[in-house]
Design brief:
The protein is an alpha+beta fold. The chain folds into 2 domains: 77 residues, Pseudouridine synthase I, catalytic domain, N-terminal subdomain (Alpha-Beta Plaits), CATH 3.30.70.580; 93 residues, 2-Layer Sandwich (Alpha-Beta Plaits). 13% of the residues lie in helices and 26% in strands. Strands 1, 2, 3, 4, 5, 6, 7, 8 and 9 form a 9-stranded mixed sheet that branches. Strand 7 and strand 8 form a beta hairpin. The longest helix has 9 residues.
Length: 194
């Protein structure tokens, strides 16, 4: 029977099971043999990562053609404007490609969010705000490139959901196994983790 694991990948952990020097990797969080990531999450990003031992399920989750929405919370530098958020939602020209339209909105700092280790560098003169983005594509460093292009660089990035799967209270480094099925047509409801 296939396995599907939801992991809250901590900041600074490589999205692979093999070691690269002394940097932490997935092996430090999950000791289940035979599973591998369904998609990627940058080393300096945090949050939901799906792991499976089923190649077909991995493909269904990770392949952009299957349009699994991915929900991110981005802490950005500066007082982000509605105009910038509208530009993100319409799609941004990043030079090598134009992002697809997405859902984007300014949100309050989440009260359930854990402190980052190490913390984001605080600068009293420069405020920060949070933006929630729901993408149906996943190019390399896309959210960071998008927010920088509209003038508000990302300081912290947390993925909270992939399709129907959510963090739902997992602390950094924690994981849980869930049924290895992909609901058909299951559009996420934009709920925050509990």
């Amino acid at each position: 029977m296939s396995r599907l694991i939801l992991l809250n990948k901590p900041y600074g952990v490589l999205c692979q099971f093999s070691r690269d020097g002394d940097r932490p990797c997935l092996k430090d969080c999950v000791s289940v043999p035979g599973v591998y990531p369904a998609g990627r999450l940058d080393t300096d990003s945090e949050g939901l990562l799906l792991l499976t031992d089923d190649g077909r399920l991995q493909h269904r989750i990770a392949d952009p053609r299957h349009k699994q929405p991915k929900t991110y919370l981005a802490q950005v530098e500066g007082e982000v404007t509605e105009a910038a958020v509208d530009a993100l939602a319409r799609g941004v020209d990043l030079g090598d490609f134009r992002t697809r339209p997405c859902e984007a909105r300014i949100v309050a700092e989440p009260d359930w969010l854990w402190p980052r280790d190490p913390p984001v560098r605080f600068r009293k003169a420069i405020p920060t705000r949070w933006v929630e983005l729901v993408l149906r594509e996943g190019k390399n460093r896309q959210v960071r490139r998008m927010t920088a292009r509209v003038g508000f660089p990302t300081l912290r990035l947390v993925r909270t959901a992939i399709g129907p799967w959510r963090l739902d209270g997992l602390a950094p480094g924690q994981w849980r196994e869930v049924p290895a099925t992909l609901p058909m047509g299951g559009h996420h409801a934009g709920r925050r983790p509990r």
